[in-house]
Structure formats: C-alpha cells, structure tokens
Design brief:
0% strand; mainly alpha
Length: 118
C-alpha cells in the first residue's frame, strides 16, 4: 500500500501558493479595516458624541433654571403689584411700574446710541 503524503509538507504548487498568499493579504486587509473602523468609532464617540451629550445636559439645566427664574419673577411682580396697590391704589401702582419701565428703556436706548456713535 502506498504511503499517503502530507500535502502541507510538500512544496506548494504555483496556483495554490498564490491563492493562500491572496487569502492572507485579504485577511490582513480585513483586519486592518476593522481596526481602523473601531478606532474611528471610538474617536467619534470620544471627541464628538460625549461633548455633545454634556452640552445638551448643560443647556437643558440652564433652560430649566431660566424657566424657574422667570416663573419666580412673575410671582414676585404680581405680589409687588398687589402690595403696592393696597398702599397707593392700583392706578398709581400701574403708573409707577410703567414709568419705571419707560425710564429703563430710555437709559438703555441712550447707552446704545452712544455706543453706536463711537
């Protein structure tokens, strides 16, 4: 009975050897592609996604704080109108509030005109 020869131990044929080299090169390229893809995903996650998440949380917190501040100021203004109205009358209270806002807008307008003239 003839002895069976091991195909891996003998010298490779030209086509078989070339096919194995090409398979190895393809495997190497696929591994390199997968590695580059993983590194790109990690970089995008670290440099873009996480800072955007932190920015979103910061903006949401600031918006919530601003909304609570506005609500508090509205309640304080209503309380001031009621308190002042009971002391000097509601007509004079609204006149005083209007005059205060008019004076404030005049001051801001004057500041803006001066800054534009410079």
């Amino acid at each position: 009975m003839p002895e069976e020869t091991d195909t891996s131990a003998r010298a490779p044929k030209g086509d078989d050897f070339l096919a194995r080299i090409l398979d190895s090169v393809v495997d190497l390229l696929e591994t390199a592609r997968d590695w580059v893809q993983q590194e790109a995903e990690a970089t995008v996650r670290e440099k873009i996604v996480l800072p955007l998440q932190r920015l979103g949380l910061t903006l949401a917190s600031a918006a919530a704080a601003a909304a609570l501040l506005v609500i508090a100021l509205i309640f304080m203004a209503v309380a001031a109108v009621i308190a002042l109205g009971s002391v000097i009358g509601y007509a004079w209270t609204f006149f005083a509030i209007g005059a205060t806002f008019l004076t404030g807008s005049t001051v801001f307008l004057a500041i803006k005109v001066r800054s534009m003239q410079k």
